[in-house]
Amino acid sequence: MSLYGNVDSQVFQNIAATPAAFALKGGCFGVTVHADTWGGGSVDLKRQAADGTTFISVLSAPFTADAYQVVNIPPGTYQLAVATATGVDADVTSVFSTTG
């Protein structure tokens, strides 16, 4: 059976600082990041830990250049952590197969 119409996505445009935390339903997600200026900085997708305050990276490595990564994550509260990079455009979007 195919799944249609249940895209979970967060989009960020022209940011230079860590935005507010957001909820994701969990599953397979594609993360795309572009920055006008990296300047030795990074962008990381982090999940809120059980203590309710700490955020822990879920990526294999933070972005330090324009790139795309796929990550499997559980439902929870997430944050796109931006350090030094400016003019950041990013999206975190669920990915699922359109075949049975």
Describe the structure.
- There is one protein chain.
- The chain has 100 residues and is an all-beta fold.
- It has one domain: Jelly Rolls (Sandwich), CATH 2.60.120.
- 0% of the residues lie in helices and 55% in strands.
- The strands form 2 sheets. Strands 1-8-3-6 form a 4-stranded antiparallel β-sheet, with no helix packed on it. Strands 2-7-4-5 form a 4-stranded antiparallel β-sheet, with no helix packed on it.
- The chain is globular.
- The mean pLDDT is 92.
Key descriptive features of the protein:
single chain; 100 residues; mainly beta; 8 strands; 55% strand
Q: Cα-atom Rg, whole angstroms?
A: 14 Å
Low-confidence stretches: none
Number of helices: 0
N-to-C CA distance: 5 Å
Write the layout of secondary structure elements.
Elements: E1 9-15, E2 22-24, E3 27-37, E4 42-48, E5 55-57, E6 67-73, E7 76-83, E8 86-94
Antiparallel strand pairs: 1-8, 2-7, 3-6, 3-8, 4-5, 4-7
Summary?
By secondary structure, the protein is an all-beta fold. The chain is built from no helices and eight strands.
